[in-house]
Automatic annotation (TrEMBL):
Organism: Neoroseomonas oryzicola
Signal peptide per UniProt: 1-21
Keyword tRNA processing: no
Coiled coil residues, start to end: none
Record InterPro entries: GfcB, YmcC_sf
Name recorded for this polypeptide: YjbF family lipoprotein
Keywords on record: Lipoprotein, Signal
Origin: domain of life: Bacteria
C-alpha cells in the first residue's frame, strides 16, 4: 500500500518532468517535512571533490563517514525519528538510514529513492538470530537519475536477498554478507560488534552505475577491538 501511495503522489511530478531525488525521498521515506535547504550545498564544492575539508566530527557528535569510489564526505545527523535517521554532507549529499540500512539517497547522479520490505522486517534488525543459517527476504526499491527525466524513473523493482554470516575478519567482530538478485545483482557487507550486534561499518549498493557506498559510524563508542579493515 505504501508503494502505491508513493507512486500516486509522484505521478503528477513525473508527468511534468519535475520530480527530483529530494521529492522522492520526501514522499517515500521520511515522515517529517524536509526543508529545501537540506539538499542545497552550504558552500561551493570543487569539481571532483566532496567534503575534503571536513575530516572529523565535533566532540560527542555521531556522524557517518561516507566513501563512494574516490569521493569522501562526512554526513552529520539532521533529523531522527525512531530508527530512522537523515544525514547530510556539507556538499548537499543526503543519506536516509533505517537502522544500519541505507534506504534512500539524494544529491548523487543516481538516486535510491525508496526501500520497502515485502511482507517482513529488515533482516539487519535480527542479526543475533542468524547464527550459521541464512535469512531470506524480499524488498522493493525505487530508483531514478538525478536529472528530472520521467523516463529514467523506475518504480517497484524487486530484490530477493539472502543474508548470512561470513568468516569473521577479527576477534569480537562479525561480518554479514547480503547477496541480492532480481532488478540488480550485488553483495552488501556489514561489520558488527560481536557483543551488541551494532553495525559500525558497511558497504551498500545504492545504484547500478555507482560503486558501493562505504558507511562508517564515527564519534560513537568503538567496537570491542579496534581493527583496520581492508578498503
Amino acid at each position: 500500500m505504501r508503494g502505491l501511495l508513493t507512486l500516486l503522489l509522484l505521478l503528477p511530478l513525473a508527468a511534468c518532468g519535475n520530480a527530483t531525488g529530494a521529492d522522492l525521498l520526501r514522499a517515500a521515506v521520511w515522515p517529517i517535512p524536509l526543508p529545501d535547504s537540506l539538499f542545497t550545498p552550504s558552500d561551493p564544492v570543487p569539481q571532483g571533490e566532496w567534503d575534503a575539508a571536513e575530516a572529523s566530527p565535533e566532540d560527542g557528535e555521531t556522524a557517518l563517514a561516507l566513501a563512494l569510489g574516490s569521493r569522501r564526505g562526512l554526513a552529520r545527523l539532521t533529523q531522527a525519528e525512531g530508527e530512522r535517521r537523515m544525514w547530510r554532507t556539507q556538499g548537499g549529499v543526503v543519506v536516509a538510514t533505517d537502522g544500519p540500512r541505507v534506504v534512500a539517497t539524494a544529491g548523487l547522479r543516481q538516486v535510491l529513492a525508496a526501500t520497502r520490505f515485502d511482507g517482513g522486517t529488515d533482516p539487519l534488525a535480527r542479526l543475533s538470530e542468524i547464527g550459521d543459517g541464512t535469512y531470506r527476504s524480499a524488498r522493493v526499491i525505487d530508483v531514478m537519475r538525478s536529472a528530472s527525466d520521467p523516463a529514467r524513473m523506475r518504480f517497484g523493482l524487486r530484490l530477493d536477498c539472502a543474508l548470512r554470516a561470513a568468516p569473521s575478519p577479527a576477534e569480537d567482530t562479525l561480518l554479514f554478507e547480503e547477496s541480492c538478485r532480481g532488478a540488480a545483482r550485488f553483495t552488501n557487507r556489514f561489520w558488527a560488534d560481536a557483543r551488541s550486534y551494532a553495525v559500525f561499518r558497511s558497504e551498500q549498493w545504492i545504484g547500478d552505475d555507482l560503486p558501493p557506498l562505504v558507511v562508517e559510524v564515527v564519534g560513537a563508542p568503538p567496537p570491542a577491538e579496534v581493527i583496520t579493515l581492508p578498503r
